[in-house]
Each structure stands twice: as C-alpha cells, then as structure tokens.
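Recall that a protein's primary structure is simply its ordered list of amino acids. Everything else, from secondary elements to tertiary packing, is in principle encoded there. The following example makes that idea concrete.
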Amino acid sequence: ATPGEKGKTSLYSVWKTDKSQLGDFGVAIGTYFHSVYWLAFIAFIAGVTNIPNIMYFWGSDYDPSQEHRELPILQQGSAICGDTVWVPCPGCNEDDWIDDDAGDRFAVGVNQVTESALKFALKTNCDGARYSSFGVIVFLFVGLNMMSALQEEEEVKFDENIQSAPDYAIVINDPPDIPETKDPDKWQKFLEDVAKEELPEEDLYQTHVTFITLAKDNSRFLQDLINIRINLRKLRKIFHCPQGDIDYIKEKLRDEPRLSFFQKFFDECPHDL
C-alpha cells in the first residue's frame, strides 16, 4: 500500500514478487536485486559449461595417484594433483619460493661425493585441463557486459516508477540580471502562467508551484567569510582572547606588525562572527 492508503495490505511474497516491483524500495535496492538475479544466472551457465572439466579432474585420467580422493568432496573436481615427483632445479632460488608461499615445494640436498648443495622442486605429473575454458571466459565477458547494459535500462525504469521532488523540479541557471528575478513571488506567477499556456486544461487543476529557492552567486563572499573564521580562530589561540572579542584582536593586530597579514580580514569584519 502507498503511504496514507487505508485497507487490507500484505507483505511482499518471497517467491511471487516480480523483480520489477523491487524498485518500490528505492532505485539502489531494485538495481542490487537485478544484479544478483543476472549474476546468479551467469554463474549457473558458467558452472554447467565447466562440468566436462570438473569430471576430467575428478577421474583417474588426470591424476593416476587418486590422492585427490582424500580431499573434501567439493575439492575432488578441482585441478589439485597428487601425482608429484621431486626433480632437480639448479637455477631455483629458495627466496622466490618462500615469497610465493610455496616453501614446501622446494628442497635442498647435499651431494655426498662433492658435498655441494643440490636444489629440488616438486613437480606435478598431471596434464592441464583437457577441455578449454576459453569459451567460459568469453561467455563471462559477454554476459557481464550485457548485464551492465540491462542494468542501466532497469535503473531508468525504476527511477521512472518512483515519483520524487526532482521529477517536478525546474532549474534556471542564467536568469536576467534585473530586480524582478530576485522576487520569488514574481517567479511563482511566471511559472504558473507558463504552465497554463503549455499544459492541457484537464491538468491545470493540480498544477501549482510548491516552493521557490533563489540561490545567489555569492561563492566568493562565502569563501571570504570562511577565511575570516579560520583566521579568527588562529588569532584567538595566539592572543588567548575569549569568543567574539574581535575589538581586542584588532587592537592587538595594530601592535603586532608581524601579523599584518591578518589585518585585511578584519578591517570590515562583522562583530557577530
């Protein structure tokens, strides 16, 4: 039910609620569930496409040792290989293996004849994936791009279904510099007259101007006020003066030439800063 509506209501159904209705909770919530919907679909298709690789990794053709059978069942279809052998690796550097968190796959022995160090690396005898995953990568790339495009369309639909103040707001950025443009009552009459001319007669009964905001181009003035307050706070700390005692600060500034930089901020400073 909409706010203020009376009558029997019910909660949203977990299974029967269409995803288009999720925008009632806001554009961000609707877009989130739309993304989850498509990500679940893309992940499901990618998982089904990978079933041949999973079955190959599961069988003995990939790992004759079958040591992967001792792993948790969800890892038995992964590319973990238990068929390994230590092979000489004279050019290996132990630090490189440790940095890659693979120190257990590197070993050092000693030649009993020459007493020289021998380096070994643990090599797997399993072949790589027999069924190429390139198609899955292409599908993910295309699917995620399509999801992004559909998400933008859904976001527009959600936004159009939700009525908010910006949908009925008009912004005028370059009004003429005349006294009439500074009077909100004149703006109200002007906008209502325009509505009467442009809208059909059946829509005029509910057409009105709710409020008008006049924003003056006074950013430089506001920045000057901010600078005054910042420097005033610094000077209060320097002179240890109480809040609002600007006359005392001005007098101190006249006696302190080294602080003349601050003087320009207080020549015409209002006393209520």
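The CA atoms of residues 147 and 153 lie 10 Å apart. The longest helix spans residues 134-161.
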